[in-house]
Amino acid sequence: RGAGPLAGRHLLVTSGPTHEPIDPVRYIANRSSGKQGHAIAAAAAEAGARVTLVSGPVSLPDPPGVTVVRVETARAMLATVEAALPADIAVFAAAVADWRPANATDEKIKKGPDGPPGIALVENPDILATVSQKTVNRPPLVVGFAAETHRVVEHARAKIARKGCDLIVANDVSAGSGVMGGDRNTVLLIGRDGAVETWPTLDKDEVARRLVARLTVLAGT
Ligand code: C5P
């Protein structure tokens, strides 16, 4: 290694869903395939970066030249991200479950005469916000994603302010967009100053390459 525009840089990426156990055989999850996050990790490695990919459960192969750490839960993802710092650039593309069952049981919950069990939920840590707001070891460039079904720009601007990241990559995942699980993505880039840049619909690999090229410029030399 040593060649490429990101040579000598450490890029940290989260990707995929998280699984939050209800009991040993059941979990709460969401529809993330991990395709976009994995493509970003691969593109960064191609650009010469040292890449750590913290991935939830996905059915994708590990991208070549990338250090992959597989986790199940949001809490494990946060701990793994913290352990991987410092990084020059952090891209949080994982679709982290917002909530987890408050009391995952060690034994399988059985069907019974009392009807379905209630599942109390508690909030998961917000990995993007936690890392964006660190006072020690905050990566100089922190990128979040925003999967929205409506008012994409408005929500993305609010998200930058709330979480404290530097850039949001927003995409429209409303029914019919085909983004979830698909191979193509239509994204908007929203910066801290609120400026919006609209990209055409592209393969997720191409979105990844363009994003890595942009991050290379933003990270400076
Ligand atoms: O708030 P929302 O989930 O829409 O924000 C999406 C962004 O925040 C993504 O970059 C996602 O990876 C990140 N996130 C996170 N930890 C959470 C929830 C979201 O890192 N618990």
Automatic annotation (TrEMBL):
GO biological process, alphabetically ordered: coenzyme A biosynthetic process; pantothenate catabolic process
Protein's name in the database: Coenzyme A biosynthesis bifunctional protein CoaBC
Catalytic activity, as annotated: N-[(R)-4-phosphopantothenoyl]-L-cysteine + H(+) = (R)-4'-phosphopantetheine + CO2; (R)-4'-phosphopantothenate + L-cysteine + CTP = N-[(R)-4-phosphopantothenoyl]-L-cysteine + CMP + diphosphate + H(+)
Superkingdom of the organism of origin: Bacteria
Cofactor note: Binds 1 FMN per subunit.
Entry's family note: In the C-terminal section; belongs to the PPC synthetase family.
Ligand binding (CTP): 98, 108, 125-128, 145, 159, 163
Cofactor(s) named in the record: FMN; Mg(2+)
GO CC term, one of those recorded: phosphopantothenoylcysteine decarboxylase complex
Organism: Methylobacterium nodulans (strain LMG 21967 / CNCM I-2342 / ORS 2060)
Pathway: Cofactor biosynthesis; coenzyme A biosynthesis; CoA from (R)-pantothenate: step 2/5; Cofactor biosynthesis; coenzyme A biosynthesis; CoA from (R)-pantothenate: step 3/5
Enzyme Commission identifier(s): 4.1.1.36, 6.3.2.5
Leader sequence residues: none
